[in-house]
Amino acid sequence: MFVSLRDGESQEGLLKRFQRSIQNSGLLREVKAKRFFVSPGEKGRIAARKSAARYRRKARKEAGLEAGTAPRKKLPLKRPPA
Fold this sequence. Notes:
The protein is mainly alpha-helical. The chain has a domain at about 10-65. The chain is about 55% helix and about 0% strand. The chain has helices spanning about 10-25, 25-35, 40-65. The model has no long low-confidence stretch (mean pLDDT about 85).
């Protein structure tokens, strides 16, 4: 990753721009992921946990429990004729 100093830019501004470019490229995330060996089975379990967390967040949002959202109205249950 290379960042050159622009005209009139301070060292702090250059460092901020460099850090932002590193974050946007996803380089740190990739390095952290490859720091330790993760077996294929463990990768699957991690993916399943992430998927379940996404599902729970979506359910909470639809229920109106997230900040800034109103709860959705629940419709009465329709029972089949007996």
